[in-house]
Each structure stands twice: as structure tokens, then as C-alpha cells.
């Protein structure tokens, strides 16, 4: 028990000081604006999003971007009139000249649904930059302007924002900041942004990509079967998205004011979101699943259980580890403007994530992996 407690503590000490300061939120900042603004196509894959488009699409059609731009909404075989509602919204705003609705083709063999829809949007445009964004994201009027300014100022091939996720219900307060924390632990933002590091990641809600960088990286066809398409795209661009196939430059930060409109009233909804990709992240490997569950239990659950079951020394070590863990989690909790006491809830959140990860494997083995909008995409 004592050895277990010390192992957990040492692991958290390593994470605190030697893991790219992952626990300290890296937030987007304004950059100097370019003299000449490049053209941008905003590509929005949309499948049965009629309920949320009236809140999200107007924010895209209201961008105050100085250069040439338009929204290409890809209607991915929706059954709820998504395309027609998008056209009506643009017409009502007198912005129908800024919107193109493209029907997605039949899903090609070997392609995941979202990547195929993204490809349809890319093919419909010819701009210098492509802004991929989800249909449930609300953008302030300056959003695209800031992204392009950052890309130009830092000569970036990919700029991505992890949007501010909805965090109001109990389930969201317990699990959403933890989601951001775990993502940053897996992909430390500062390492992702370091051109000398192999770490690469992006957040699919907002990804501004230089079209030539996408072509240099082999286009979306190189990631056609990926379910975790955002990180796969970041890897492809960082490897060879620069000039003449050289490594590309990417940047990932947390967004201050770009927000997700999708809410979760129950833990089951968030668990379904996790289950969709968790086992894919583990490459559908049973040994990786076992190691991951054991590692998460050691990191997050042992410090809470040991004070209840172990001897005094192990119990004290576990308590210290829990406090250290909570201290590292606190900046993320405060970023979401929650009370500091929520930092103590990380082990409970981890238990839910462990359960969802195991459930992700179960769904995959039952042929229902990667379930999204009626498609089981993990095969």
C-alpha cells in the first residue's frame, strides 16, 4: 500500500513539473493584424443540426472580417431540413450571398462521415484559408479576424481553439473541466505549439488551416478514416504541412469567447461523447485498455481510496497526492468560473471517464463504435 501511494505521488510530481505545464491553461490572445487580409472559406459540416443552427449560424454570418469570405455549410444527409433552415436564416439576415449550402455526396468507402463532409466543403471552395468549425459553435464577430491575425503574425499553418464548453448543469460542472484537463494532460498545449516537439493536436470545433499546408500534407484523404480527425489533421500538418513538405507550424489554445452551444443535462450524455472516441484513442487495443484503466486508477482513484483502507503512512501520502492533484486542477476549474471546491472532485470525474472508456471498448466490440448521428464509424 505504501509503495502504491508513493508511486502515485511521484507520478503527480512528475506531471506538475516535467509535463509541459499542462495544468496551466494557455488562452488565446490578440495578435497584430495584417495589412492584406487573405480569403477564407468557413466550412461547417452539419448533420441534423436544425435545432441549433438558428443560434450558431447567425454568429458566422455576422463576422466582421475585412477580407473575402463565405460560409460553406455541408448538409450531410440531414433528415430535419438542416440545409433549408440554413438558407432561410441567411435570407432573413440579408446575408444569403455569404452562404453556400453543399449537399454531401454518398459516404465513400473508407471515409468517416465528418471527414467526408469536410472534404466536400474544401472541394467547394478555393480560398487561401479554410476555417473548419462545428455547427454547434457560437463565434463572436471578431473570431475569424483574430484567428487569421494569429496565423499571419506567427506564420502558422494551423490555428486551433478549444472552445469554451457549456458548463452549467451538475454533470457539466463535474465532467467538462475534467475533459479539458485530461485533454491537456494527453496533449500538453505548450508542447503541441513547440515546433521542435513531436506533439500534435487540435480541437475540431475551430481549426483555421492554410489551404496550401493542407495540400502539402496530402489533403484530407490522408485522414479519411479517422474518427479523431482533429488531432489526425494536426499530426499530418505538423509533419509535412510546411513549404515543400517540410514540417508545418501549429498552435492550440483555449478560447476566451468562442463557445459551444451544446449542453448536457445528464452524465449519460457526456459519457456517450467520451465513449465515441475513447477506445479509438487506444487504437482498439485490449492491452492498451487494461494499462490505461490501471494507470488512471493509480493516478486518480488510489489517492482517495488509500486514506480509507491503508496504513497511516500510505493514507497520509494518498491525502497529500489528492491535494496536489486538486491544486493542479484548480486553474482549469477557475477558468470555467467554478468554486474552488470543485477541484476536489477530479477523482470522481476520473471514475466516470474510466467507466466511459470501458464502455467505449464494449461498443466497439459490439460493432457500434464511433457512434454519431446514427453512424457507427469505428470498424
Short synopsis of the structure:
By secondary structure, the protein is of the alpha/beta class. The protein has 13 helices and 10 strands.
Model description:
It contains 13 helices and ten strands. With 379 residues, it is an alpha/beta fold. It folds into two domains: 2-22 and 266-365, no CATH class; 40-260, Spore Coat Polysaccharide Biosynthesis Protein SpsA, Chain A, CATH 3.90.550. It has an eight-stranded mixed β-sheet, with helices on both faces. Strand 1, helix 2 and strand 2 form a beta-alpha-beta unit. Helix 2 (53-61) crosses helix 3 (82-92), helix 10 (267-281) packs across helix 13 (346-365) and helix 11 runs antiparallel to helix 13. The longest helix has 24 residues, at 286-309. The model has no long low-confidence stretch (mean pLDDT 95).
Biggest sheet: strand arrangement: 3-2-1-4-7-6-8-5
Number of beta-strand segments = 10
What's the helical proportion of residues? 40-55%
CATH topology label of the largest domain: Spore Coat Polysaccharide Biosynthesis Protein SpsA, Chain A
On the 0 to 100 scale, the average pLDDT is 95
Number of domains: 2
Give the number of helices.
13
CATH class of the largest domain: Alpha Beta
Q: Sketch the topology as an H/E string, one letter per element.
A: HEHEHEHEEHEHHEHHEHHHHEE
Radius of gyration: 21 Å
Globular, elongated, flat, extended or rod-shaped: what is the shape? globular
Bin the strand percentage.
15-25%
CATH architecture of the largest domain: Alpha-Beta Complex
The largest pleated sheet is described as:
8 strands, mixed
